[in-house]
Amino acid sequence: MSFAQLTLPLETEASYGPESFFVADHNRHAHAALQKAAREPAKTLYIWGERACGKTHLAHIFSFHTGALFLSPKELVLQDFWEKGATHSAFVLENIEIVQSEASLFHLLNSVKEGGKSLLLTSRTAPSALPFTLPDLCSRLRGLEAYEIQAPDDLSAMAFIYKRFSDCSMKASPLLVTYLLTHSARSYTALDKVITRFWQASLKEKRRPTVQLLKEVLEQTPLLTA
Q1: Which DSSP string corresponds to the chain?
Q2: pTM of the entire structure?
């Protein structure tokens, strides 16, 4: 079986409801801070962590509780903020490391603060590691209340696996979960990629999601193995 042939952009439909978020030691502080910010407006929070660690899920929970509007990091235009500001008291800006206009981001931070609104920022990197050069912006970002979502422990990894299988409408048998936990690299990024490729292979090859198929997927992606 060659996974180079799996070229169709098959995507799952992730569940971002508050009830499906698994709170554990590695994300507990970020989740608690977000819940507090939802009750106490006029606050800017910064959450960072690797790909697939739950930042987007937290952002949707924040939006669920506050009605926050999602802004586009690639097309960050302050006009969007001013036009929507009258009807929205909270905003979400994900993946801020790809924001093109540093000036727009700096003015957004100022506008949110001056307007008494709330803002949730997410990124894959710590505030001090962002690729920005505007001194005032860098200083403002480093001064934000920031929380890191760390690598998963066994319980968190297991919960993540069950959720991703559910997103893919696949049944996660204890045997499959155990094999993944012992053979995949222990990171959200690796687990997410393995499960996605496993799901794609099952659909493309018209095969049941078995341990044997999972072994083949991992053999084809050695960088994702433990």
Answers
A1: --GGG--S---------GGG----TTTHHHHHHHHHHHHS-S-EEEEEESTTSSHHHHHHHHHHHH-PEEEPSTT--HHHHHHHHTT-SEEEE--GGG-S-HHHHHHHHHHHHHTT-EEEEEESS-GGG-S---HHHHHHHHTSEEEEE----HHHHHHHHHHHHHHTT----HHHHHHHHHHB-SSHHHHHHHHHHHHHHHHHHT----HHHHHHHHHH-GGGB-
A2: 0.78
Measured between alpha carbons, how far is 32 from 51 in angstroms, rounded to an integer? 20
Per-residue pLDDT tens over the stretch 111-127: 889 889 999 999 999 99
10 Å Cβ neighbour count for 106? 19
Q: What is the pLDDT of residues 165-217, one digit of tens each?
A: 998 999 889 999 999 999 988 888 889 999 999 999 999 999 999 999 999 99
> Could you tell me if residue 193 is left (phi over 0), alpha (psi between -120 and 50 degrees) or otherwise beta?
alpha
Q: How confident is the model at residue 84 (pLDDT cuts 50, 70, 90)?
A: low
Residue 115 CA from chain centroid, whole number = 27
Residues 6+ apart with CB under 8 A from 177: 158, 161, 162
Cβ 192 vs Cβ 50: under 8 Å:
no
Query: Which residues lie below 8 Å from residue 136, measured CB to CB, with a gap of 6+?
Result: 106
What is the spatial distance between Cα 72 and Cα 157, in angstroms, rounded to a whole number? 30
Q: Contact 182/80 with Cβ under 8 angstroms?
A: no
